Amino acid sequence: MASGAELTPTQYVTHHLQHWTVGEGFWSLHLDTLLFSWICGLGMFALLYAGARGATAGVPKGFQNLVEVLVEWVDNSVKESFHGPRGVVGPIALTIFVWVLFWNVLDIFPVDYIPMLAQQVGHHVFGMDPHHVYFRIVPSADLNATFGLSVSVLILIIAYSFKGKGAAGYAKEFLTHPFGANPLIIPANIVLNIVELLAKPLSLALRLFGNLYAAELIFMLIALLSMTASGFDVGSGLSFFGAIAMGLAWTLFHVLVIPLQAFIFMTLTIVYLSLAYEHH
Amino acid sequence: MNITATLIAQGITFAIFVWMTVRFIWPVIKRAMDERQKTIAEGLAAAEKGMRDLETARDEARKILDEAKSQAADLLGQANRRSSEIVEEAKQQARAEGERLVANARAQIEQEISRARESLRKEVAALAVAGAGKLLAREIDAKAHADLLDKVANEL
Asked: Is residue A170 part of a domain?
């Protein structure tokens, strides 16, 4: 922790919560989030393509088995709740699950390794001040990534509402659901429907973000504990091995959270799309 | 922790990866799985059909065997009837032949009897003539008394 040791704990944490950003204000990009989303996405595509390439109807081999299990599982999940023509709902659900899973898995990497590597590269290759190299590798701990996904789902919800109910049917439901068609009640219906509609992407994004952000923060605190080790005395030993034990415990717990959050995101997307598609 | 254009970029990224999955992954895997499912279903159906065919073939074989058996039994019955008929006919023929033979024999016997009677009659006539000749001690003209002698012979 050469550079970390010079920082106070507060500085360490805040440094770790900064994104590698270009641009100012709204029109800026978190390059680290984008980079690792793309790495995850391409990794996902490579994995799925390894299974799909040369897929045979005969005896499946290797990755084809894995991908078939994934596809069938996702397809069954979609079948259970989505009763319209399934079309691209399956691929959407599969993409969400695997992509978010890969994002979340990045949280298992030791919290400092890749940012430190980036710091060294930034310092020695690009001549940057190491304290101003910001690098976060977990896209799902960035609100922009989770909202990017959930806003896409919101757009899909609206699209499937139009597709399933038609413009007139959707408008009618928006005006008369849930309280009835009384003209005095229509404003209340509109307000409630807007809230309901916006709550879906908000809850999707915040649930995923909250879980992963909190987990990342706890990994940072555990890393901070190990940094209090300053020599070969008893206290240092306690904090060093304590950090290892807690890191192990938290990682094991987090291994459950990682697929669970990906699964929840996928399942809720399917449920929202089927609710949007069906008449009430 | 602020919302930036990253969100839009992430949305576009998501759209691209969904498109890639729709285009290159999902249909390929689904097609392979559906085809395999179809193959297995067809295999099971073929096995089922094979079992049913075997069953019908067995039934058919049993039927043919039964038919053959009943035909054989019929033939045996017919043969039995025919053989008894033949035996009966042969008996009748034998009886007729026997009767004919008996009749022939009787006819021959009749003939023999009449022939014997004829010769006896002649001998008796000759004896009578001889006896009479001796009685009369003189030659009787055989020619002159032929009518008389024949009459006597016929009366015998």
From this structure: yes
pLDDT at position A239? 87
Count of helix runs (H) and strand runs (E) in chain B: 3, 0
Task: Flag whether A136 is in a domain.
Answer: yes
Touching check for A44 and chain B: CB below 8 Å? yes
- In chain B, the residue whose alpha carbon lies closest to the alpha carbon of A50 is B25
Total number of domains in chain A: 1
Q: Is residue A82 part of a domain?
A: yes
Report the mean per-residue pLDDT for chain A.
Answer: 89
Is A49 near chain B, with CB under 8 Å?
Answer: yes
Averaged confidence pLDDT in chain B: 90
**ipTM for this prediction:** 0.87
- For the record, the structure tokens of A163 come out as 């597709």
* A4 falls within a domain: no
Say if residues B33 and A72 touch (Cβ distance below 8 Å).
yes
Tell me the per-residue pLDDT of A247-256, one tens digit each, with 9 for 90 and over.
Answer: 999 999 999 9
CB–CB of A33 and B1 under 8 A?
no
pTM: 0.76
Give the minimum alpha-carbon distance from A248 to chain B in angstroms, rounded to a whole number: 28
In terms of residue numbers, what domain contains A79? 9-277
Q: Which position has the token pair 């008369």?
A: A176
